[in-house]
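Example 224, ligand nickel (II) ion.
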Amino acid sequence: MTTDAEGRIPRTFLQGMPVEDYPDLPPEALRGRVLRITEVGEEVLHRPCRDVETFGAPELVALVDDMFATMTVAEGVGLAANQVGVDLRLFVYDLTDDDGDRHVGHVANPVLEIGPVDDTEELDEGCLSVPGPARELFRPVRAAVTGVDVHGRPVRVEGEGYLARALQHEVGHLDGLLYLDLLSKRARKAVLAEMSEARRGVLDRRRELALALGKEPALYPPAS
Ligand code: NI
């Protein structure tokens, strides 16, 4: 166990609960297949997802594994099911918060609560479905998500700063919203132009990382 700059031992939270440790490469990612990440403009990203209604099914457990593998090779910190083309209210996450603590897990049927709406901060935000660019965006500093896991067991994740932002971003996906929808029309246009420049390089890197993990890379069309 190593300490951070302030001499504090970073903690790990799995499904919102403190755990001793969790592998850098989560077992879900080891088991999962790499799927293609859907991109801005694809219909499944722009409408609300359906609630998960059947829990414990092997297909649902495998979907979480695949989402972890897909997020890992894309170097993401969160991924929603409609980002792999499945319109279910489900997301996965694996990130380090502002205190250096790691949060990892998945949430089905998340209900988002945001903290005081007058307590906001502006931070850079990007999205795996908009490969390349990032933009500064105001969001409430505090947020919590309540939902269930793939077996229907309750889960609650709450936090502030980067973690709160990720929770808001992922639930936004499940509501059919991208962070782009929170930008001005002009900023959105600039982001899309940047994306078309950067996209190929980002997708090539996902392919390399998939191969490095011994996984079949996802196939992406030449242009979105
Ligand atoms: Ni996103």
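Summary: The longest helix spans residues 185-212.
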